[in-house]
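User: Let's play a game. I give you a shape written as tokens, and you guess the letters that built it. Ready? Here's round one.
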């Protein structure tokens, strides 16, 4: 009997901030690989969500939201989605179907102009089908010569089967790039820092989270058997932000630590000791030396 050919490929997921890219990648990879929040610029790195089925392995690449670069950090994020769209086998342009296409959507689509001229397929994914209105669809469809349009819901999974079937049809026969059971290329150190940042994003007002960077300084076996020790530093731009995150009598920082530790333990399936520190690094988003040391450039 002839065996079914195994296919593999890379799908770059791009769009404006807050369109739902990370939620989509998490759902497709059947695991939480990227943090999510209602605030723009939640995703700052390229993050892979890996879905392995019996006949295929699809690597979904979550990219930062497309924005105008205003500092060194923004320039780094811009570099990511430009590189990923050029190197991917297919580009998935994800939009929020619950509202009209905005100027930011149009700006994001303009950056695809070179991709539209290439041989890389570009699919339009109209997300939030449960809230989407058909009168909005035409706005998005007119943003570019998309090869195909899908209406999906990252919450319910509506439209996923059609997207997966189409991707498997266009991908070539190839190897599994990652072992079966692998859901992301990210390290536990990176994931732990991101979970701390996610809780900061969810618990604080907009001004503070945008000026926060979280970095794992040290990881090692804890003093108690089976425990992993993480020393994580929260970097902020202002002394006032440091005080806000600490909170009255340290209450807010403790809450951030407790919530983060529980989720990291769930992800690692083991006990965690989380040691949080806060340091002020003024204008860190424009400090190329710091960004480089943190793995940004």
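Assistant: Ready! My guess for every position:
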């Amino acid at each position: 009997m002839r065996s079914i050919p195994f296919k593999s490929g890379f799908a770059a997921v791009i769009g404006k901030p807050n369109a739902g890219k990370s939620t989509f990648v998490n759902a497709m990879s059947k695991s939480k690989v990227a943090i999510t929040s209602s605030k723009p610029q939640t995703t700052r790195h390229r993050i892979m969500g890996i879905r392995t089925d019996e006949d295929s392995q699809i690597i979904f690449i979550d990219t930062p939201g497309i924005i105008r670069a205003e500092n060194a950090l923004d320039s780094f994020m811009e570099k990511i989605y430009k590189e990923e769209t050029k190197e991917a086998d297919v580009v998935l342009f994800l939009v929020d179907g619950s509202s009209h296409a905005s100027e930011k959507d149009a700006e994001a689509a303009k950056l695809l102009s070179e991709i539209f001229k290439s041989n890389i397929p570009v699919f339009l994914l109209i997300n939030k089908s449960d809230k989407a209105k058909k009168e909005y669809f035409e706005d998005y469809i007119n943003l570019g010569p998309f090869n195909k349009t899908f209406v999906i819901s990252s919450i319910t999974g509506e439209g996923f089967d059609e997207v997966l079937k189409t991707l498997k049809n266009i991908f070539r026969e190839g190897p599994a790039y990652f072992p079966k059971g692998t859901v992301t290329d990210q390290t536990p150190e990176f994931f732990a820092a991101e979970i701390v940042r996610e809780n900061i994003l969810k618990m604080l007002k907009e001004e503070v989270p945008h000026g926060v960077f979280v970095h794992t300084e040290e990881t090692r076996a804890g003093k108690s058997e089976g425990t992993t020790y993480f020393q994580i530093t929260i970097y902020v731009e202002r002394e006032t932000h440091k005080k806000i995150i600490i909170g009255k009598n340290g209450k807010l920082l403790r809450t951030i630590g407790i919530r983060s530790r529980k989720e990291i333990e769930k992800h690692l399936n083991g006990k965690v000791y989380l040691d949080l520190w806060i340091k002020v690094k003024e204008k860190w988003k424009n400090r190329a030396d710091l960004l480089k040391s943190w793995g940004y450039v």
